[in-house]
Specification:
By secondary structure, the protein is α/β, with parallel strands linked by helices. It has a single domain, classed as Rossmann fold. 36% of the residues lie in helices and 19% in strands. Bound molecules: flavin mononucleotide.
């Protein structure tokens, strides 16, 4: 089972990175082949909106997103992790999401080559874990429309300093359980 973690926080070794890495570590311990990608360290440009990819399935921009397209096609499961920035995903995460357009045909069927399980992982400064619930549901609906197989959303709330997540034993345990479950969901 191949699992990739795509993480969109600009902060190095912050809470979002720790959350995604915890899920990946647990999945790895349970037999998954895992890889971690930190978007801020990659060369991923914005979508040009040219729609060439709609016909060809290939993006005209030759940057690290070409690798990510290959990695997504090779994967059984994907984690997309982002901090909440201004009630939304970070800019790096949104840029990555826009560049997923090549997988969508003009009739909105998918070019994904099989089942792609998708887990969403968020961190937020707000201590109320339900504060952005409707937004996270909206993203689940979006990715479901894009033919990803939604496995759920994990949220770490009240994370401000970069090590705050380490004080949240329950969230870390939940992340480990989710990592294990992702592996078993792949049979
Ligand atoms: C530019 C910016 C905007 C933010 N906007 C929000 C927000 O709208 N709601 C919220 O709860 N936290 C917000 N935060 C806090 C982050 O979501 C939170 O600290 C997160 O855990 C940071 O992730 P990191 O540790 O991986 O960098 C914001 C932080 C920054 C830097």
């Amino acid at each position: 089972m191949k699992l990739i973690g795509v993480e969109g926080s600009p902060r190095k070794n912050g809470n979002t990175e720790k959350l995604v890495q915890t899920i990946l570590e647990s999945a790895s311990e349970n037999g998954a082949d895992t890889k971690f990608y930190k978007l801020i360290e990659m060369n991923i440009s914005h979508c040009l909106g040219c729609f060439n990819c709609r016909e060809t399935g290939t993006c005209v921009t030759n940057d690290d997103m070409q690798l990510m397209h290959q990695e997504i096609q090779a994967s059984d499961a994907i984690i997309i992790g982002s901090p909440v920035y201004m009630w939304q995903v970070s800019g790096q995460t949104k840029r990555f999401m826009d560049r997923l357009v090549p997988f969508i045909r003009p009739d909105f069927t998918t070019r994904l080559n099989g089942k792609k399980r998708l887990l969403l992982a968020f961190t937020q400064g707000n201590p109320d874990e339900n504060a952005f619930k409707s937004y996270f549901e909206y993203l689940e609906n979006l990715f479901s429309f894009l033919h990803y197989d939604i496995q759920g959303t994990i949220v770490a709330s009240g994370t401000r300093d970069k090590n705050d997540l380490l004080q949240q034993a329950d969230t870390l345990e939940k992340a480990r359980e989710i990592g294990k479950k992702l592996v078993t969901s792949c049979g």
